[in-house]
Amino acid sequence: MTYFNSKQFSENWTNRAIFRVDRDARKEVFANLIPKDVTKVLEVGCNAGYNLISMYFNNNDYDLTGIDNLKYAIDESKKRWEKFIKFFVADARDIPFPDNSFDLVLTSGLLGWIKYNELSTVINELTRVSNRYVLAIDHAFVGDIKPFLEFELIVSYRGKPLYIVRKYDDYFPGCKVIKHIDRLPVEFSGIPMSAWLFEKI
User: Fold this and answer.
1) How far apart are the C-alpha atoms of 113 and 111, rounded to whole Å?
2) What is the mean pLDDT of the segment spanning 6-24?
3) Which residues contact 4 (CB under 8 A, 6 or more apart)?
4) What is the largest CA-CA distance in the chain?
5) Which domains does the chain have, with CATH numbers?
6) How far apart are CA 8 and CA 13, in angstroms?
7) Pairing mode, if any, of strands 175-181 and 193-200?
């Protein structure tokens, strides 16, 4: 087992998320990105649940659900937010909900961790369980390298591939981009992030 697939990494990653969240910044981003007709939301790869609780404090009429394949993250989410949000351990490659179950399906910081040969499976699952919108937030291109790349950049950590930065405009078949933010406020995550709001067509 590699460190990135280990229990230690999952706990460190979840605890890192808990302590670097600016809830006000997230509330503002989601208020600007989420369409007014959305009531039922699923986050895939919800980690400690901070995106969903930020949405709840924007609009407590949202019906919110989060899934993550890290049991530790789901346990921590339930400790904090189970009164407001439903949480389940589940895999993005096989989302355990029927077609068209949610108005909006969100993923934030997940897609860059998905291997290229599994990416279409995950994207198909995101779009399958959405009845209208998919919101993809992921690592942004940084600095002068952006103009020289058409599709993706592998980011390394201590000399090893860590996650992949991609332009997702054309990755979601059967969807159109209706809103794109090239760079979210750094307070959203502490690292450069971009957002794409897709609508199924």
Assistant:
1) 5
2) 58
3) 162
4) 47
5) 3-200 (3.40.50.150)
6) 9
7) antiparallel
First to last CA, the chain: 41
In the predicted structure, residue 71 carries a pLDDT above the cut 80? yes
Residue 145 clears pLDDT 50, i.e. is over it: no
Residues 6+ apart with CB under 8 A from 85: 49, 52, 53, 56, 64, 65, 66, 77
94 DSSP assignment: B
Two structure tokens written together for 1:
């087992």
**Residue (of 69, 125, 63) closest to 99 by Cα position:** 125
Mean pLDDT of the chain, nearest integer: 82
CB distance 90 to 71 below 8 Å: no
**CA distances to 23, 66, 67, 69, 166 from 48, in Å:** 13, 9, 10, 12, 24
Summarize the confidence of residues 131-147 as an average pLDDT: 73
Encoded tokens for 196: 């794409």
Q: How many CA atoms lie within 13 A of 82 on its CB side?
A: 9
User: Looking at residue 146, what is its pLDDT?
Assistant: 43
Angstrom distance (rounded) from CA 1 to CA 67: 23
Alpha helices in 46-115, H assignment, sequence order: 50-58, 71-81
pLDDT at residue 54 is higher than 50: yes
**pLDDT (0 to 100) of residue 10:** 54
